[in-house]
Amino acid sequence: MSDISYIDRSGEAQFGDFVALLKPRVMSLVVFTAFVGLVVAPMPVHPFVAFTAILFIALGGGASGALNMWYDADIDRLMRRTANRPIPAGRVSEGEALGFGLALAGISCVMLALASNIFAGAFLAFTIFFYVVVYTVWLKRRTPQNIVIGGAAGAFPPMIGWAVATGGISLESVAMFMIIFLWTPPHFWSLALFMKDDYSNAGVPMLTVTHGRRATRTQILIYALILAPVAVGAAFTSIGGPVYLAASLVLNALFIRGALRLWRRDEDVALAEKYSAEKRYFYFSLLYLFGHFSALLVEKGLGIFGMGGW
Q1: What does each C-alpha distance from 297 to 41, 47, 115, 240, 290 come to in angstroms?
Q2: What does the pLDDT look like over 273-292, one tens digit per residue?
Q3: Cα separation of 175 and 162, whole Å?
Q4: Domain 15-168 belongs to what architecture?
């Protein structure tokens, strides 16, 4: 722990520190999937409305990140991966992060409702509540199923984007939700595998801590097998088509193959290789999700020119 015991509290918070509170990498995923949900919806949206809606969805995602960092500041100090975040590093106070997060949450939800419709604004508010209260406060420190249930918060953005355009929910928006929902556990569990003792040191009951690495590898494989038919099945909804089907078949074959390789790995070999296969699987999982949602955009583009669909 000597590498994180010293905290420099000199100076005031910089603009970049508040940007870091928003978890910009996570926000980019929120923005992209929400954008896809909005674009592939059957109802056209004025470009200005679409831009403002995505902006406020992004701010809502950032609010969730800031409130998560505020509540988790104590355990962030104990993990090497998070020790340099603005609060544990002493660059932003917990009070500043709380106020910043609450302000962004209120602004984003109200403005999204005004810019699009009340249902979309309420859906964004529910998503922030789910991530902060249900996942961060309730589940994260209590159960190894934290990321399974809490992962729903990260799966809501395409449904919010769809709601901006349509004012409601449909089979297609639920299909996009299910892809992300089932993708989240193997994505984060592969991260937990190569983060070694971070979660154990912080007392977070991640599956790797409570059930061990072998059980975690098994669960990754199980979720990859469950995810595949759901992801491929979206090809046969109104937002799918042959391009999406081809992309999904390839991506899921590679995803399952990677999960099988992880499942077959010997723990001593994994440690000797510094968990290189686990890291590759984690990064491929990002490509997996990006590939599916990009294929949906391609199908929408082809449909505009009368070339998409079945």
Answers
A1: 11, 16, 23, 9, 11
A2: 767 888 999 999 999 999 99
A3: 12
A4: Orthogonal Bundle (1.10)
